[in-house]
Design goal:
The protein is mainly beta. The chain has 1 helix and 10 strands. The protein has one domain: Immunoglobulin-like, CATH 2.60.40.
Length: 165
């Protein structure tokens, strides 16, 4: 609790300035600050068996802690406009104080076609947005696109160990 009060005071001092009346300053609204994707926009030679990962960074100033969920729908289209069916899974969600992250994993129902450009669109494309009223779903627009390589990636990740310096 003391850390939370200190962090609020520090935020107010930094955002409002030392010479201003702190009472006139308000905490900013809770918001989704950014969305990161993997594959990244414009990536080439993506394996045809890829999943799509989206990580949202958000701020919760109304009480801190907790988390959020959003009603976002996705569309993955190939270069000819054919839609790929996606399974949406919620990954890790973590909040530290007032800041958090929320992960969504999109899994194509079948392996993607080789050497093809795909475009991912969402009905929540305007970011940053204020929670909850400013993050309402709307028209679909592009988040990112990527180009698949010639084949899938069947090699599992490996760890070589630690080397002495």
């Amino acid at each position: 609790m003391i850390i939370r009060i200190v962090s609020i005071c520090l935020f107010l001092v930094l955002s409002c300035g030392l010479g201003r009346n702190v009472r006139a300053c308000k905490l900013p609204t809770s918001s989704i600050n950014s969305r990161t994707t993997l594959p990244v926009d414009g990536m080439k030679d993506v394996p045809t068996n890829t999943d799509i990962l989206l990580e949202y960074k958000y701020t919760l100033f109304s009480g801190g802690g907790g988390g959020f969920s959003i009603d976002e729908t996705f569309r993955l289209l190939d270069a000819k406009g054919k839609e790929v069916t996606l399974k949406k899974r919620i990954g890790a969600s973590r909040t530290t104080g007032y800041w958090g992250r929320y992960v969504v994993i999109l899994e194509p129902s079948a392996e993607l076609s080789p050497n093809t450009t795909y475009t991912l669109s969402s009905n929540l494309s305007k970011l940053p947005c204020a929670l909850p009223s400013g993050c309402q779903p709307g028209d679909f627009s592009k988040i990112m696109s990527f180009h698949t390589g010639a084949a899938s990636d069947k090699t599992p990740p490996s760890f070589r160990g630690i080397e002495k310096l």
